[in-house]
Amino acid sequence: MITSDSPILRTSVNVISPLALLVATYLFFAGHNKPGGGFAAGLVIGAVVILRTITGLQRDIQAARILSIGTVIAAGVAVAPIFFGETMLDQAVWQVTAPVLGKIKLGSALVFDLGVTLVVVGMLTAAIEGLGGTHYPVEEEF
Amino acid sequence: MILLLLPILLVSCLFLAASGNRLGRLVFPLAAAPLVVTFIWGCSQLVSTAPSAEERLVWVSGLSLNFIFQLSSLASLMTVLVSGIGICVFMYSFGYFSDDSQGLNTFSATLLLFSTAMLGLVWADSVWTLFIFWELTSITSFLLVGHKNTYKEARLSARRALLITAAGGLCLLAGLLLIADSAGTTRLSEMGTAEFSSTAAVLIMIAAATKSAQFPFHIWLPGAMAAPTPVSAYLHSATMVKAGVVLAALFSPTFAETGTWKTVGLFFGIASMLWGGIGALRQFDAKLILAWGTVSQLGLLFTLLSLGSAKATFAAIAILAAHAVFKAALFMVVGEIDVRTGTRDIRKLAGLASSMPITFGVAAVSAASMAGVPPLLGFAAKEAAIEAVLKLSGTQDLIAGGSIVVGSVITVAYTTRFMLGVFSTPSQEAASDATPVAPQSVGMSVSSSLLGACSVIGFLILPKVSTWVKSAAMQLNPEAEIYKLYRWPGLTTAFLVSAAIVASGLVLGWFAEKKIVAEAKPAGARFADLSVSTILRTAQVITGKMQHGSLPFYIATMAITASVATMPFLFALDVEPIYWSDSWAQTTLAILAIISSLTVAAVRTRLSAAIALGFVGLSITGLFVAHGAPDLALTQLLVETVIVVGFVVGLGKLAHGFPQVGVIWRGVRFLVSALIGFAVTAALVASASAPTGEPPLEAIAEKSQTVGGGNNIVNVILTDMRALDTLGEITVLVVVAIGILALAKPRLPSIEREDAAKENVI
Amino acid sequence: MSFVLVLTTASLTSVGIYLITSRSLSRIILGFSLLSHAVVIGLLAAAGPAGQAPLADETSAASSANPLPQALSLTAIVISFGLTLFLLALARRQQAVTGDDLVEDDLEDRRIRQSSSDYRSEHP
What we know:
Chain A is mainly alpha-helical. Chain A has four helices and two strands, in the order H-H-H-E-E-H. In chain A, strands 1-2 form a two-stranded antiparallel sheet. In chain A, helix 1 (7-30) packs antiparallel against helix 2. Chain A starts with 6 loop residues before the first helix and ends in an 11-residue tail after the last helix. Mean pLDDT of chain A is 76; it is low at 134-142. By secondary structure, chain B is mostly helical. Among the domains of chain B are: 267-514, no CATH class; 518-548; 553-690, Four Helix Bundle (Hemerythrin (Met), subunit A); 710-762, no CATH class. In chain B, strand 1 (55-60) and strand 2 (65-69) form a beta hairpin. Chain B is elongated. The mean pLDDT of chain B is 85. Chain C has one domain: Orthogonal Bundle (Helix Hairpins), CATH 1.10.287. Chain C has four helices and no strands. Chain C is elongated, with a radius of gyration of 21 Å. The mean pLDDT of chain C is 83. Classes of the chains: A mainly alpha, B mainly alpha, C mainly alpha. Chains in contact: A-B, A-C, B-C. The interface between B and C is large, with 110 and 102 residues.
């Protein structure tokens, strides 16, 4: 496992993590009206996971589980309308007005975006799992 | 009735194929059963004069693609021949094979499938139906020739036969397309006579010539003799090779006014008639003599049909029937000799006349019929042909007529040589040299005798045969009504000519038997094989050159190809829509991106390359911002971060620099890069040169708010308007993630490393 | 069409192809990244002039940049990102197995080349 022992790095990552999650949440909900969206949110969360893994704050990562949940959500939203006699990926929309974000659309599109976010997070987790070499025997330095 | 018979036949094929080895030789009588039904029906149709009703089976209704069948007079004659000889062949096979032969079920099923295909072919009234059954006969012929698939010779011959006949099949398809287009109908019976394109005529004539083994396509037929004798007797003498003749006959009224049709047909016919006869004179294998003789006889049929006169057509049909009967019988005789003596070489065979009397009798009658000696069916047919020749005028026709006479002399000659070589007792050596003979088999004797007798019976019921031939000929040329076959024409010129032909043929044959000692080399077949192997070798060499395993080479090849493919754009450039830059920010960021990308290539360590790549990404992010694409910028920034981190984490351990490469290869890479850069510039500028319309910006913006309910248009497009794309995209991500996880699994790295070390040594 | 963007696309492609024709998997990945940048910039250049961010409530449709190519580019960025990560994992694997990240000649293809020269010597 690639880990860094620097306490400064550890602490800062620890501090940044919740902030980054907040940013991700904002991006996720803002996506429909402002720059942002499911991809961006997923990338931010994924980056946090990567940072935490590198600094050794997080060890138990389960990429496969996150991936499968995300896939099921996205595919479910995509397929669900067929059972209601609609075309695939048809949208159901409810409007909600929330503070800070303004008018947001709560709908199946948001759930679909959630699936996308989870898949992106899952992929990044898989990447750090594969690249970080958690499975490889440690050879040279480190 | 046809739509009833075809399923019966096909189901029988399936049944035979599925029967396994349980039935042994009994598969042959079983296979003959549906043919008996067909034969009886065919005879009843032959006697009745009323044309049968059209039968239709809708295949693809949307394309108006139907199986259409109609039994014409020619078709009923062919039906009787195909099913009748088929019955004899199956009976013969019963004697030819022994009970312990392998694969009899597939053999009989394929043979019956061939009968079905051949019957379908003669019954077809739509060009597409005709084509499908035509191809089916090629395929079944391929399977049957290659029946002894453990022998290399059989496989080669089968491939040669398939290549030539399948090439003919393609010509046929093209010809049929052309003719169906210009005639406005796909029905053979409605084709009519008109001025059709010469191309269609030549294509269809070539198709007929490949199938009927006409010079120079005849080379597959001698090779096809590698097949078991029942196949040779059935496919390669009596029926399949007649498919080409039938095709030529069916289209002869259609192309009656197309000059090329006659010229090409006469070329094929005369060349095959003479060259096939000469070939028959030079062979020592009895079966090959017959095969080359078949080429010659088919050439005679082509010549007669191409002449186009009513009498010639009439004679052609008569010979078609007579030839099917006597040639099948002769093949069966040779097969029987082969089985009972173990050889077919006429230099080794001797004195069979006394040891195989029945076989000799059949051979004598059939050979006499082939030579045109009375009182046999072949005589009456040949007389008709000679009479037709005597009525000819005009240079082209006279050449053809002369060739027919010469061809007939050669026919008599090789027949004589065949009979002398196989059956006579050598004069010098003692009579004890007669080839030893195994006991006879009932199945073989009965069926060959039956066919031999048909030549006699045909002569006895000549008026009947004459009517059948006449109605078939009238279908092709209504003027044939006045002709008939004569038992005894009297001392006419034609009779005198044929007497002279037989006499000179006998002399020539006797000389040939004595003088020809050197075996002919199958030059044509070797040429065909050589062409095929040259093509294969060229393909292999080119593949070896192109696919030599180096990934950089492949990519460079692709890049060069792509660059060359854009070169035509250079002629469509318009610089008017091109302006220098959108803004100063854009120019600055673009320069930054270019410089940092060059840095990526220039630096020699992975870490610095990764950092330079990060700079490229940042510049690109800036370009997005300057372009008005905040979503792209946001995503790019995050992506770039993760990639740089991944690069450092994943490959940072490889501390040493990149490997050095040779100067030449580096130069090639420089050139390829410059080329592709130039090509990209040209392609992009060209894409701007031909705007086809304005982007519907307002419509998209409005739709985003009304349909998608969001203000960020890009995101609405992604999650709403084009959500299916996004679904596909996350599928890619999931697959990638699974791949990464799978790569990370430690599958015994130590063993794999050993393998890799071994591979590197190679 | 902005010629600066055209030039950027062209040079990114050039450098990308130069890197991707290398034997080192690391450089191939670098080249691949540059090529995907080039594609996105190319799309953007072809999309029309720069404008304001395509936000329906803030900018008028006429003054905003064309949003459709941006959506396509976004998909392209994410997919090439995934593939880059996959290539990195491949390189990592290669390094763990052979100790380096070089792309050797394909064994199967080398056999084809061998068989073609065998064929030539058998059938002169």
